[in-house]
Amino acid sequence: MIERRAVPRRGWQALPREARDTLFLLGVIAWTIIPHLPHLPGWCIALTSVVLLWRGQLALRNAPLPGRWVLVAVLALAAGLTVFSFRTLFGKEPGITMAVVLMALKTLELRARRDAFVVFFLGFFLVLTHFLYSQSIGVVAAMLVSVWGLLTALVLAHMPVGQPSLKQAGLLAGRTALLGAPIMALLFVLFPRIGPLWGVPQDGAGTGLSNSMTMGSVAEVALDDRIALRLRFEERAPPPETLYLRGPVFTRFDGQTWTPAPMRFMPEPRMRVELHERGAPVRYEMTLEPQRLISVPTLEATAERPSVEGLPIYTRGDLQWLSERPVVERIRLSAVAYPQFRYGPLTREPREDLDLPPGFNPRTLEWAAALRRDPRFANADGPALARAVLAHIRTGGYTYTLAPGEYTGKDSIDDFWLDRKEGFCEHFAAAFVVVMRALDVPARVVTGYQGAEVLPVDGYYIVRQSAAHAWAEYWVAGVGWVRADPTAAVAPERILRSVQLRPQPGFVAGALANVNPALLAGLRDAWETLNNRWNQWVLNYSRGQQLDLLKDLGFEAPSWQDIAMVLIAALSSLALVGAGWAWWDRHRLDPWARQMQRLRTTLAAIGIEARPHESPRQLAQRVTERYGSAGGPVVVLDEQFEVQRYGRAAIIRPQPGFTREFVAASLRLRTATPR
Question: Quick one: CA dihedral 569, 571, 577, 582, positive or negative?
C-alpha cells in the first residue's frame, strides 16, 4: 500500500502556486531582457527593473495589482522618454525599448489567463528581437533557455488544478519543443534565402578599419582580439609576409587626418589600372565579419572581381574592392590573388599623391630637403629614396610599440619623426608617406590587415582585429605603385612571422596561461572551431548550399522552384503525419480520466455505483458509509488519488501500480459485511 507521508515544504513548494508561477515567469522575463541591456537607455533599464521587482513583491504579499490609470501613466512616461532618447517612436532601437517596457508593464495586468498568454507571446517576440543585433552562439544559447522558460510557463498556465512542480512542467515543455524541432530544421534547410532579410543582424562592433586614419587610430584596434575574417586556401597557404589584405586607401592629408581621394568615376567591375601578375595565383575563400564599410578587404592583389552571393562588388582602380552598401552582415567570398604583382598607371604621374598641407611639419620637410641635398641622393629615383628612408627608420633609434602616447597638434609628424620616435604601424606609414612626398615622390597610405594566426583552425586561418595594419605605397615611372612597409624595417618579426604586439591579458586568462598555456590555447582553438562551424554551416547557409543539397538528392539542375516543391512536399507529408497522430490522440482518454473510470468500475464490483459527478473524496465517504472501518484501505487510496490529481503536490500522470493496489484492496471488501 502507498502511504501518505507529510513532507515539509521548502523554497518554491512553500509558496502558493500563483505566487510561485508568477515569480518563475518574472525570472524568465528578466533573463530574456538581460542580453538587451547594452542596447537599452539607462531609464528603460531602471524602469523595467522597478516594475519587475514591484510585481514580484505583489506576488509574494498576494497584494492587489495597481489600477489601469497607473499603468497608463507609466506607459505615457516611457513613450515620452523614448521620444526624448531616440527622437522617434519608430525604428529598431525605439521599438525594442518600447517592447521591453510593454513586457514589464503587462506583468502588472496578470489577472486572467488571457493576460498571461499576452505576456508569453510578448516574450517570444522579445526573443526574436535579439537576433536583430547578433546571431552568435552565446545569444542563441541564452534565447533557447528563454524559449524553454516561456514554454514551461505556458504549460503551467494550461494546468489549472493542483500545484504541479516546475520540473514536471519543464520536462513537458522540453518534450513538446523537441517534437517541433524536425519541422524547424526542415524549414531552415529548405526555406528560400531572401536578402537582405537574412542579413539584418550586425554581429560584432565593427572592424578595426575605418574611412579615415589619424595618428593612433590603428593602435587602438590592436587591443581588440575579436575575429575580423577567416581565410581558407585551396592549396598551400602563402608565407605570412605576403598576406596583405587591402582595405581603404588614403591619399588626402590635412595635417591631422588621412582620407580617401574623391571618387571621380563610377565603380567598375574590373580593374581600370594595368595589373601585372607574377608567380602562381592563390585561390582563397574568405568569411568576412560585419565591418560597416563599403571597402571589402581582399588579399593583394585580387585582380578579378570576388564572387559574393547577393552583394555586387566593384573597384575604382586602386586595387581596392568596394561593395554597393556597407557590409553589415557576415559574408563569404571566393577570389584569386597574385601576391607577386605590380600595377600602374605606369606613365602618368599621380600628382594628387604629392599634396601636403602648407605650414605643417616644417622640420620633417627640412629633413627631407637635407636628404635630397646629399650628393648621394641628389638625382636618386623613387626606389633609392625609399631605401634611404627605410634605412633611417631601421637605424634611427625608432621603437615599435602599442603605447606610443598621443601625437596631437599641428606638427605631430615632426614630433614622431624627429623627437619621440615611438609609434605603431600608422605612425611609421604616415611619416614615410609625408617624407616621400616631400622628396617629390608620389605616395599614399594603405590600410587593411597583415598576417594571420600561424596554425589553421578547422581549415581556416584566423585574422583578428589586432592584425589591422597600415603600410605605404610610392609610385615609380614605368613600374607603377610599389609597396613599402616601414613596420618591416623597425619590427621585421611583425611581418615575417605575424608576431603581433598584444596587451597584457586579463587576470583569469593570465593566471590560466601561467598555469597551463597549452590548456588555454586548446580551449581557444576549440571555441574558434565551434564558432567557425556555426558561421559556415548555420549563419552562412546560402542558396548555393541549398541547391547543392538538391543535387545530392538527385536533381540534375535544381532551381528555387525545385526547392519550393521539395519544401511543400515535405511539409505536406509532415502535415499528414500530424493529422494522423491527432486523429489517434483524439480517441485516447486523459490518463486521470482513465484512472477514474477504473476506480468507478472497481467500486461497482463491490456494490458502490459511482455517479459521474462524484469526486474521489465523495466516493471514499460512500465506502466508509457502506463498509465502515473495513473500507479504510480503499478510503486511503481514494483520498490519495484526489491529492495527487487536485492537491498542491499534483502530478502529471498517476503513479504506476496504483490501479492494481486499489483493485486488490477493493476485492478484499467482498468478504466484508456491509453495514
Answer: negative
Query: Which residues in the chain land under pLDDT 50?
Result: 1-9, 196-207, 272, 507-509, 512-513
Predicted local distance difference test score (pLDDT) of residue 6: 43
Tell me the pLDDT of the chain averaged across its residues.
Answer: 80
Cβ(213)–Cβ(470) below 8 Å: yes
This prediction's pTM: 0.62
Q: What is the 3-state secondary structure (H, E, C) of 538-589?
A: HHCCCHHHHHHHHHHCCCCCCCHHHHHHHHHHHHHHHHHHHHHHHHHHHCCC
Q: Which of 348, 281, 12 is nearest to 156 (CA)?
A: 12
Q: Where do the DSSP E strands lie in 384-460?
A: 399-400, 422-423, 443-450
Give CA–CA dist 177/208, Å, rounded: 41
Report the alpha-carbon angle 216-220-222, nearest 5. Answer: 115
What is residue 589's predicted lDDT score, i.e. its pLDDT?
55
As a whole number of angstroms, the distance between CA 646 and CA 641 comes to 8
DSSP class per residue in 24-81: HHHHHHHHHHGGGGGGS-HHHHHHHHHHHHHHHHHHHHTPPPPPHHHHHHHHHHHHHH
Which residue type, as a one-letter code, is found at position 65?
L
Question: Which three cell numbers, joined as nine digits, stand for 219?
Answer: 593602435
The upper half-sphere exposure of residue 137, i.e. CA atoms within 13 Å in the direction of its Cβ, equals 11
**HSE of 392 in the Cβ direction (CA atoms, 13 Å)?**
16
Q: Which residues contact 448 (CB under 8 A, 6 or more apart)?
A: 209, 244, 245, 246, 247, 248, 297, 468, 469
Cell numbers for 360: 605643417
User: Which pLDDT score, from 0 to 100, does residue 647 have?
Assistant: 66
Q: Which three cell numbers stand for residue 27?
A: 525570472
State the pLDDT at residue 303. Answer: 80
All three cell numbers of 217, joined, read 587610430
Helix and strand counts by DSSP (H, E) for the chain: 22, 20
3-state class percentages of the chain: helix first, strand second, coil last, to nearest 5: 55, 15, 35
* Residue carrying C-alpha cell 538587451: 36
Q: Which residue has the cell 528581437?
A: 129
Counting every residue, how long is the chain? 675
- What are the grid coordinates assigned to 317, written together? 582602380
pLDDT of residue 204: 43
Which three-class secondary structure state does DSSP give residue 376? helix
Sequence-separated (6 or more) residues with CB below 8 Å from residue 528: 227, 457, 458, 462
> Is the Cβ–Cβ distance between 525 and 517 less than 8 Å?
no
DSSP 289: P
Q: Quick one: pLDDT at residue 348?
A: 63
Chain centroid, CA 79 distance in Å: 29
CA-angle at 453, arms to 514 and 244, nearest 5° = 145
Nearest alpha-carbon partner for 285 in 233, 242, 323: 233
Give the span between the Cα atoms of 383 and 276, in whole angstroms: 18
Dist CA 600 CA 613 (whole Å): 11
> Tell me, what's the pLDDT at 670?
72
**What pLDDT was estimated at residue 5?**
44
C-beta neighbour count of 164 within 10 angstroms? 19
